[in-house]
DNA 3'-5' helicase (Thioalbus denitrificans), 724 residues
Amino acid sequence: MDVTHIIDSLNPAQREAVCAPEGHVLVLAGAGSGKTRVLTQRIAWLIGVEHVSPWGILAVTFTNKAAAEMRGRVEAQLEMPGSGMWIGTFHGLAHRLLRLHWQEAGLPQGFQILDADDQYRLIRRTLRELALDEGRWPPRQVQSFINARKDEGLRPDHLQSLGDPWQEQMGRVYAAYEAACARGGLVDFAELLLRAHELWLNNPALLRHYQERFRHILVDEFQDTNAIQYAWLRLLAGDSGRMFAVGDDDQSIYSWRGARIENMQHFERDFPGTRVVRLEQNYRSTGTILDAANALIAHNFGRLGKNLWTEGREGERIRLYAAFNELEEARFVVETIAGWVAEGRARSEVAILYRSNAQSRVLEEALLRERIPYRVYGGLRFFERAEIKDALAYLRLAANRDDDAAFERVVNLPTRGIGERTVQQLRQLARERGVSLWQAARAVGAERLLPGRALNALDGFLDLVEGMAANGPGLPLHERVEAVIESSGLRPHYEKEGNKAEARLENLDELVSAAREYWDAEGGESAEGDILSLFLAHAALEAGERQADAHEDSVQLMTLHAAKGLEFPLVFLAGLEEGLFPHQMSVNEPGRLEEERRLCYVGMTRAMERLCLTYAENRRLHGRDLYAVPSRFIGEIPREYLDEVRLGGSVSMPLGHSGSRGGLAAVEAAGSGYRLGQRVRHPKFGEGVVLGCEGQGTQARVQVNFEAAGSKWLVAAYARLEAV
Ligand code: ATP
Ligand code: MG
């Protein structure tokens, strides 16, 4: 096999990493320097040149999508299938292990994955069972407590409260939650990792098997591994495994989820003889974008430090847009995209990044209005939408009757006369007898513990689910999903939902398509368990990465956290305001502020050609009006890299004083008699805010966003607008 092309396009430092002799390698390098590429080429090198079997390779990526891409690249280069390789996220790989070894892991075969939302509900129920007040024990706080302990590898009996009553109580909640999960055969995300770790710890023979198999372990985005993930890797590597990790301390953005930068420092100690390779050439961004990002991140202390340069062109300056409010900000974004598309560029080359998920709504509405197709990564993901979760809950019950979260979700959906009182009684009985809600419902029927009407309704539900379970096996997955949707009565239920009905029904159809795709991809069967359970796990794990129109040329919207590792020719960073970004909760803590700055660095370095930073001087978010000050991060970018722009043309203005409010906003709407952002009342449309103006005198038109009627262009002379 001719494999010279594997290293042809690499620079010397990259080549050193890809072709390193047997041993551990740590690639420490900045954004866009080719870390992911080097990791992919390393796999190709191992297989193509070192004749390692694909079967002996395990690679960890940041998303499932990245895993698929990596596998595709390796296969294309080697012109052979790499099906024996295990490539996936930590969660995906842990899940795979647990499916294969559910018995050794102490799980029921049909165990189901709890996503964050299900976990939250289950925690609330647990608090209720323990008669704890949610005001004093906020479920979100309990949730992060439990997940953080699991990320550290700690079970309830490992906790040492040292007489602290708060800790003690939390420990009790954790234990009760764990018991509820065990009863229902439920595994949350953090549990996947912890269980997979314990699986190996408790089964030395199994561990040995995997250690002998996976001699080559490769990890992307190594800076964001948490304690349990790192422990899992070390266990797998043992004495014979070879680690190849790539990472960038400046891009560590998940410490709030337990990620530990220190893992980068411990690596050399834990894996003796590590060869450290630094990559310094950036291939992604223009000189301006790179220099600006480097200048920003230089404000952080305690960095491992590196030099990043590019041979690429200097490129245009970074555009900075000061919007009056979030609506105008969205309008700028949308118009800039329209201009980009008019230049003949693709929408898929564009990403809009934001700090907080809630920011997406206004941006989405602006895109919808202009009919620009877009996709949202994260946020309300396809598999998180209510109707999808309802349908999945039926499927989950069909797969595992003891799944309490699913039971509660659909026991009376659509309404079938099973009231809250009945459910309360079931909960109580379940608690008393230590059984699942399903079993409690069965007992209630057998012992006739409820009045006749309630019993009939409950029996109807139990029969319905039993019917779904009985009709399932033997059918192709998508037919099974379709049948469950039909018999559940969810369709007629959602048809009644007015203006949202159509989208919901479309989503249900899309679920059937997703099942068909999954069925086809798996070839109709799988060695790792029954296909329905696998599909449900897939739904929980891949939530954000598959959406309706995946093939349409569309703009990408996502949080900064989700953008890690990706690159786009045109990038917007929206909402650069103090309190929003850096986030309010981080501004007073130096450590967290540095993490926000790294997040900004990650965002900026996603851009290849053009970068636009925007902020709004007024913002309505979570229903509150905020008067915002531009983010300090804007002030940390040297002004020679910035270009202040206005809507409707790139009128370049000198910046008064970088990062200050003075002279930044174009608030005057010349000639129209209205100010941008001014509140006005229209006799027919009611109250709204002036968004824009064009033309002069009798030709002048003004755009108003009415609270009830939405955004409209009106001829100023006839509009009879009143200032309010
Ligand atoms: P990040 O830190 O953001 O994850 P990274 O270090 O993983 O970035 P890659 O995504 O691997 O960087 O590479 C960035 C871009 O540079 C990609 O488009 C990649 O194809 C390109 N690239 C990397 N190395 C080279 C090279 N030697 N020659 C040409 N292009 C390269
Ligand atoms: Mg990368």
